[in-house]
Amino acid sequence: MEIDGDGLYLVAGVALLVGAVLPRLLRRYAISAPIAFVGAGLLLGVFVERGRVNPVRESGVTEHLAELTILVALMGVGLAIDRPIGWKRWAVTWRLLLVAMPACIAAVAGVGWLVGLAPATALLLGAVLAPTDPVLASDVQVQGPSTGEGAEPEEDDEVRFALTSEAGLNDGLAFPFIYAAVFAATKGAVGGWALEWFAWDLIGKTLIGVAVGAGAGWLLGKMAFEAPSRTFRLADSREPVLALAMTLGVYGLAQVLHGYGFIAVFIAALTLRASERSHDFHEDLHGFIEQLEHILTWGILLLLGVAITGGLLKPLTWAGAAIGLLLVLVLRPLTAWLSLARTPMRRSERWVAAAFGVRGVGSVFYLAYAGKDFSTDLPWLWATVGFTVVLSVVVHGVAATPLMRMLDLRRDRAT
């Protein structure tokens, strides 16, 4: 039996209802909501016309849905972080971004090359699987802004802060490596494009994204909290839709100016958060974005499950499965563990922060974005990435609750 167009409204309604109830039901168990939604998608795929849900054929729809989900999540994590930005305060973040991420990309690309992939395809796979996910990692991230009189920046939970801030920035910082893979596939020898890539795709676009985000966040912060006229003082209106308007507007501006919009959105959220930390309007903004993020995430995971039932993983080879297993269980934990050496983190905190490099919607977006230049290997790439995302959802989803409880108990005993 297949569900027709009208029946999809029923499916959507039931999915949203289940999504509202599942997190409460699963709170005490080692089953995260993302695991349940992927499972629900697998079952739904039995009844839905599977040809409609194929990320290889519908790459445009997949790209834009994943793009919107990431944007909303980036705004959410930016608003949730209480810690002011700074080189020393964010030391663990810079290590994860500047050491662990490039090392992980190189390791995955090296393994891909060893199993027979072309260098450009191997680099693309490493870059696609590089970003940790701001969407699916909510169980191991900071939970929201601390507001009200006397609210102090969160300093004690280094693991949640590290994973949240890393996920906020590395979605944008993966873009230069995606472009490097595309250039290697389309422009040939590295010598013909390396300088342009370094100056523009790595440095120039990143700086534009940072500048747009900081400027827009500062301006909107002034409008929200300090505008001389109450008409323009957005915080007094209590309209949380400002968060969505800011997300889309900042992203669009950065993209028009040829900067990295993902970076701009996260920086804008951090800047807005810093403009008036004690105001409880931040809670309204974060709450609205969190609800929208949940809806979009449920949709992505359901569609992923349906696509798997429809045959997304059929081209998966032992080599692809091995790459996914190595990334989740060895490469990410090892590279992140080494990058966090000589930090204030306890040994157990370093292991948890290193292990929870959740792969998810960011990988889906990047493959949909760049896959058209790798048509020969595209089915295999989708199968490998799909397998890795599901593996990450299951492994990290099962481990998140008990390991974070363990860290919280140890932290409480130490205080």
TrEMBL record:
Residues 15-405 form the Cation/H+ exchanger transmembrane domain. Keywords: Antiport, Cell membrane, Ion transport, Membrane, Transmembrane, Transmembrane helix, Transport. The chain crosses the membrane at residues 6-22, 29-48, 97-130, 173-195, 202-221, 241-274, 295-313, 319-339, 351-369, 381-403. InterPro entries: Cation/H_exchanger_TM (IPR006153), Na+/solute_symporter_sf (IPR038770). It is a multi-pass membrane protein. It is found in: Cell membrane. This is Cation:proton antiporter. It comes from Kribbella ginsengisoli.
